[in-house]
Amino acid sequence: MNLGHNFSKIIRHPLLFYTSIYAVLLIIYSPILLRSLPILNDYDVVITPLSKVSSISEYLKLMFSLKTVDIQPIRDFSHLLDLYLLKHGIFFFHAHNLLCWFLIIFVVSKIFSLISNSRPLAMLVTLLFAFHPALLQSVNLVVGRKHLLAFLFITMATYLLLKAQVQVQQQNSVIAKKWPSTLPAFPTFLLLLTLLYTLSIFSQPITLLWSCWCILFIFLFFHNDSDNKHEHGNKTLYSYTPLLLMLLLMLFNIAANAYYYEHYYAVQFASSKYDGSEEYIYIKLLALGRMFFQLIYPHDFTFLYSSDSLKNWIGLGLLIPFLYILKKRLPLKSLLLWISFSLIPIPILLYRMTQIFYQDAYLLVPSLGFFILLLLLLHSFLPAQKERQRSWAIALFACSIPLFISFCYRTFSELKLLTDGTAYLKNSYEKEPSCRTLFAYAYHTLYAHSVSEGLPLAKKFFSQNCSFYTSAIDNATSEKMLAITIYSDQEIDIESKINSLKKIKDNNIAITVLYHSLILGRNLTKSRHSDSRPKENPLKEITELIKEKWPMSPPTNELIFNLAQKEITQFCKQTNPASKDATKSCLHYEEALCKRFAICKSKQAQ
After folding, report:
1. Which residues are CB-contacts of 85 (< 8 A; sequence separation ≥ 6)?
2. Closest listed residue to residue 458, CA positions, set 509, 516, 500
3. Among candidates 457, 456, 546, which has minimal Cα distance to 509?
4. Distance between CA atoms of 20 and 4, rounded to whole angstroms?
5. Does residue 598 come out as left (phi exceeding 0), alpha (psi in the -120 to 50 range) or beta?
6. 81, 142, 237, 511: which could join 42 in a potential S-S bond, CB 3.0 to 4.6 Å?
7. Residue in 449, 254, 445 with CA at minimum distance from that of residue 348
8. pLDDT tens-digit map of 461-486
9. Nearest one of 554, 547, 567, 566 to 600, comparing CA atoms
10. Rounded distance, CA 534 to CA 448, Å?
């Protein structure tokens, strides 16, 4: 009786329901909210370039100069707000993410209430959604902001569509569906949807295909004969023009992002956004299977996932009977509508797969369709009598309490790992061993912790058969890790180091690698010879071998000369600055490099 009484009290007071959810989430996220810095180097790529922006014009200048990442201005503006508050002593980065999640929960709960007239069921599914561990991965990291914002705006647009549909059905006449007077005029309504859609795709373009789903929804539920008039006017072709604007925005965003990732992204990061997996249909199916697995079994998740995991196949296998059950229990129209909603991001993610096989942030949009289908499925099992419906819902809620507790415990446990970036990436590698997870773990350990700990991991990475990274290293980050591995490892002979350097194929990246090889030469010379004047010149050996593979133009040679000269100066200072022999040795190095790059005359003229 007490459980039923308390449950009825919560149902009658929605404010108590939301307050309870938000309070539990605040407790779960307290380890992150109490931090004074973002975690997992969130600053490095996304936020740091924005730190000096103080106006919209400065931001636009920064964006067009290719110093921001991705075409996602809404995400960037949200980070500018964080930076503004940071200047006033308020660290809002992680709290901002949690606030977005609070708003998402509120809007999603309203959507569930429109889908089902059973408030207990709607609240039950809201709880499952709010505490789902895989979904909360987007809240954990500041870089997940873009996914949260895109999802928030698209859920708001979806709620408006569903609300309009319900009101239209309530005023449905025998002849035709009338547009309710409580709603804005039809073109204005579509413009509002277009605005929310625009905010979503310029937060993160994963929701691009929502426009197609929206058009399908409108023509299924709002389309009627042209002679059907009401006080807001005809729904003529003119009334539907905002839909055309929505489609144009979609096409523009697709074209802009395609051009950016094919051209400018490669310039920014000296790497490709894509990894070639789009050639293999089974990889795409496995990613789809992993998405479903993460939704139905959210107790085994991590930061990075592998395409080799057995869980991908399990998820793909379980998806088929799940769809069969839905087909048996739900009307075909509802089934197709919400399955298509779940698939909104899938073509975007799988058409050209990026270096990320799968990430839990991708689940946000599909999860709404999944939980709506789950709600409809549970609703189909409700008894016909209202009295039994209440007791059935209370029993179901009671059975779900252990599940909620396990969700909360699992998320809190993961957050403990998240406060230490290396431990989090180590957890990813141990759970999902792959080239990518090993690379992330090794790279972060090398740069954030110590070379002694990271070097064995990096050596293990480069010794494995990681075709994307080792046969054609065209990623600037992996190039850095290769360079620091070569530089730091004194056990590998020089020929092995040179062979490792030859794995770099891109000419632009080769310049950077050559620079690191010059550091290597200084390091080897210093370690092999106790006197200040080296008997050999390993710099020449390395640069000559690299030149055979990558012939360089004079401007490039001059750039490398300047970098090499700087390294020689450091070498001279470290050996014996007061020694005349050291000075002569430095001159010998500089002369050798001068001849090597054939720019002595230009330097002497200066």
Report:
1. 91, 92
2. 500
3. 546
4. 17
5. left
6. 142
7. 254
8. 777 766 554 433 345 556 556 655 65
9. 554
10. 34
Ranges of each domain in the chain: 145-269, 434-485, 490-606
Amino acid 353 reads: M
Q: Is the pLDDT of residue 196 over 90?
A: yes
pLDDT of residue 500: 60
Q: What phi, psi does 98 have (nearest 5°)?
A: -65, -35
Largest CA distance in the chain: 103
Q: SS3 sequence, 508-574?
A: HHHHHHHHHHHHHHHHHHHHHCCCCCCCCCHHHHHHHHHHHHCCCCHHHHHHHHHHHHHHHHHHHHH
For the cut 60, the answer to whether the pLDDT of residue 574 exceeds it is: no
Angle between helix 310-329 and 281-296 (nearest 10): 70
pTM for this model (two decimals): 0.76
Q: Which two tokens stand for residue 153?
A: 């705006």
Asked whether 96 and 81 are in contact (CB, 8 A), the reply is yes
Model confidence at 278, pLDDT cuts 50, 70, 90, reads low
SS3 category, 295? helix
Return the bridge partners of 354, or none. 274
Which distant-in-sequence residues (6+ apart) come within 8 Å of 565 by Cβ? 590, 593
Distance CA 221, CA 391 (A): 34
The token duo for 102 is 């609070």
Instruction: Say which residue, 260 or 555, is predicted with more confidence.
Output: 260
Average pLDDT over residues 334-354: 86
Identity of the amino acid at 52? K
Query: And the tokens for 600?
Result: 């002595």
Q: Cα(6)–Cα(378) distance, rounded to whole angstroms? A: 22
In the block, residue with structure tokens 């509802």: 334
Cβ neighbours, 10 Å, residue 605: 6
Lowest mean pLDDT among 33-47, 236-250, 292-306, 519-533: 519-533
Per 3-state DSSP, the chain is made up of helix, strand and coil in percentages (nearest 5) of 75, 0, 25
Which residues, in sequence order, are CB contacts of 141 under 8 Å at separation 6+? 38, 39, 40, 42, 97, 418
Query: If we measure between CA atoms, which residue out of 394, 385, 390 comes closest to residue 2?
Result: 394
Q: How many whole angstroms separate alpha carbon 107 and alpha carbon 154? A: 10
Per-residue confidence (pLDDT) for residue 539, from 0 to 100? 46
DSSP for residue 142:
G
Give SS3 for 354: strand
